């Protein structure tokens, strides 16, 4: 059997990557840090105009009806540019959950998501913090054995700082009297599937982040000279990047297999996702460690863009289950 991605999938990935690299620059990311909500509405509209917000929305609701496997390559590219907008959460986690729930809720919100009119975000109370709750027009929140579908007037959100300035984290409290839309065993099944999709989304972004840190380091070590030579020509520096490249190549197929398992509801999906999350975060953490090493003293300053990607990788390592959780699975 041929498990490679199709030519169309690869071409779509390349076109999305070109757009993201040109539009989501480190300068544009830095510019959002001091804004009130840390998000770029103009960029969200650009993503919607490209059809990215509706990729996994069923065709009956105005989307393209694609799967997690179709989107995983694009999630990697979102990681490559450290995209602050909640596109990956929406497309890979929230929309599939909303589609599975179905009914009037899906009929009402999915068309709005497809055309970029509304942002739908998924989160778990067990994670303590929910990313992008402040910009969610609809927040799908798992709490214990209950699943809530909350509009902004149905919950309160308290901001908490993150190691990554691009992340906006909130402690969410459901308002008194608001009832869950699903509870008990059906809710537990939906929440379990959401954990898998969230961990897969984080793993895919970690692949992109690791590759970006390698690329930044290669560019820096090609320009930086010592003893009259580029430091990238020194064997020790080469070894640092080669070790990351090896770890990254071993992580990619694990992430792609997990995406396939999730999209086909494979019985082993949870195990595959945990393997992928561990492999991808380990690759990203090693990339961060070795990249800051080859950058030398400059690596510890905000003058270089490395921090944008390094700190996002650190943050994603503990998102949707930390290493201990995934090792136990």
Q: Could you tell me the mean pLDDT?
A: 91
Low-confidence stretches: none
Radius of gyration: 20 Å
How many β strands by DSSP? 9
Strand order of the largest sheet: 1-3-4-7
Shape: globular
User: Beta-strand percentage?
Assistant: 5-15%
Class derived from helix and strand content: alpha+beta
| Relative helix content | 55-70%
Helix-strand string: HHHHHHEEEEEEEHEEHHHH
Number of helices: 11
Could you give a short account of the major beta sheet? 4 strands, mixed
Head-to-tail CA distance between termini: 28 Å
Structural overview:
The chain is α+β, with helices and mostly antiparallel strands and 329 residues long. The chain has helices at 7-23, 26-32, 41-49, 68-80, 87-101, 103-114, 185-223, 235-263, 269-295, 306-317, 323-328; strands at 120-124, 130-131, 138-143, 146-150, 155-160, 169-174, 182-183, 225-226, 229-230. The strands form 3 sheets. It has a 4-stranded mixed sheet. Strands 2-6-5 form a 3-stranded antiparallel sheet, with no helix packed on it. A two-stranded antiparallel ribbon has the order 8-9. The mean pLDDT is 91.
